[in-house]
Amino acid sequence: MATNTLFSSTTSRIRDRRTNLGHRTIAGRAVRSSLVSLAGLIGAPVTNQAGAEVGRLADVVARLYGPEPYPPMTGLILRIGRRRAFLPAGAIGRLAAGQVRLSASRVDLRDFQRRPGEVLLARDVLDHQLVDVDGVQVTRAADLYLAPLVGRVVLVGVDVSLPTLLRRLGPRRWQARPTPERVLDWQSVAPFGEQATDGPAEVRLRASRSALHRLRPADLADILEDLGRSERHQLLDWLEPEHAADALEEMVPAELENLLREAHPEDAARLVDAMEPDEAADALRDLAPSERETLLERMPSEEAAELRGLLSHREGTAGGAMTTRLVTVRMEQTVSEVRAELAAQAEHRAEIDAVAVLDADGRLIADLPLFELAVAEDSTRIADLADWLAQFGAPVTLTPDTRLAEAADRLMAARKSSLVVVGEDGRPLGRILADDIIDALLPERGRLHLRRFRQ
Predict the structure, then answer these.
(1) For the chain, what is the radius of gyration of the CA atoms?
(2) Exposed e or buried b for every residue in 148-180, given b needs 16+ CB within 10 A?
(3) Angstrom distance (rounded) from CA 282 to CA 361
(4) What is the β-pairing status of strands 418-422 and 397-398?
(5) Which range is the signal sequence, renumbered to this chain (predicted)?
(6) What are phi and psi of 185, to 5 degrees?
(7) Chain segment 152-199, per-residue pLDDT in tens
(8) Between vectors from CA 246 to CA 245 and to CA 250, what angle results, nearest 5°?
(9) How far apart are CA 218 and CA 448, in angstroms?
(10) Rounded to whole angstroms, how far apart are CA atoms 297 and 136?
(11) Residue 133: DSSP 8-state
């Protein structure tokens, strides 16, 4: 009885699985049959209700940078003799593979004027670079697919496959036939194009960031290195300065150097200013003295002075690789007060693993790890924690001239993840982190991204 029940249950599951598979197959065919190839539409005849040819399709207009997840088609560009006229979407009766039929015998053809957020899909997106956010790579649009959705035609996907490029080179009857072998959902891409930036800035930024904000800085760095000159600067314009700076810090030095050289000085200075001080100094050090000074002159005076101080130290020393991002505290403060100061520095958490305890003259007394702050009571005084640390000896420090190889040895001997760099008077100048030493001593390994390793 139990065996029969088990057999019946298994048979039922197999039958249900076959039914579901059949439904998915039918749905897949329905979706495939509803797709319209943009490449197949270009040059197709546009006819009125009577079947007479009105003109030839030159391009499709879509509102690319709007609130909709899939950009709606807003009209067509028709080529009539030497004239290019605009036909609004409401006048289109049927849009199918390789053909367009209007909804009336007489149509109102207007001169085309681009409205905010609109682009010409064939001119601005087809064959242009775009970012595949899910695949974290730069690719190129071999074709765009349109489909009917809730009473209108929308852009639903991007074909990036090589067979599609070959199909477009074939006979006309092949060009109109969609071949969706490798199609990216439109919501997973960020497109580029010089004409695609005419919309309002706030609309463009919202649409682009919705896809790009999911990428890690290292992923963005890979993408920036693969993009062309105009596209990479358009991507940087889309990002918040801090997000862009994080990506620049992950770039290969030679690529970052090229990016800063090709950018407008005002834009390059703004990007460098948003970077962490040690990373910014490394980027400037790779430029020619005149180029470096051009950028420093365009930065706020305080930040420029800080970077000039870092650049005054020799490359390969603790002073040349340290960050000036320091959290300093006084003996009379409590743990809760210091935690509040750390919370205000949350955006720099990667640069802070300890706080420097100073005396009344600003000299270093102790280097207090964040763990000790985490386990201490809120009311505990910093002086008590400094006294407790004193039993293990004075804090291990470096001078600005300490060579990085020696700094690495002292870091490992102290079993710490960072060391404070102090001047001759004992006042802290900065902090050198373990990853700064790795980047300096092993630049190729320190900057190696996973995607490049796989390639």
Answers:
(1) 30
(2) beeeebbbbbbbbbeebeebbeeeeeebbebbb
(3) 31
(4) parallel
(5) none
(6) -60, 135
(7) 899 998 888 877 766 666 555 555 565 666 788 888 887 765 444 444
(8) 110
(9) 10
(10) 36
(11) T
Torsion of CA 439, 445, 451, 455, to 10 degrees: 150
CATH of domain 328-441: 3.10.580.10
CATH of span 39-191: 2.30.30.240
What 3-state class would DSSP assign to 364?
strand
Domain coordinates in residue numbering, the chain: 2-34, 39-191, 215-312, 328-441
**92's tokens:** 């289109």
Q: Which of 250, 247, 246 is nearest to 448 (CA)?
A: 250
Closest CA to 177 of 94, 98, 95, 60: 98
Tokens 């067509």, located at residue: 76
Total Cβ atoms within 10 A of residue 238: 22
Identify the CA nearest to 282 among candidates 261, 243, 305, 313: 313
Percent of the chain with pLDDT over 70: 80
Please provide the CATH number assigned to the domain covering 215-312.
Answer: 1.25.60.10
Burial of 78 (0-12, 13-18, 19+ CB in 10 A): buried
**Taking the model in full, what pTM does it have?**
0.63
Question: Which structure tokens are listed for 94?
Answer: 């049927």
Non-local (6+) Cβ contacts of 133 within 8 A are 188, 189, 190, 211, 212, 214, 215
φ, ψ (nearest 5 deg) of residue 361: -95, 5
Closest CA to 108 of 136, 137, 75, 140: 75
pLDDT (tens digit, 9 = 90+) per residue, 40-81? 888 889 988 888 888 899 999 998 877 788 899 999 999 888
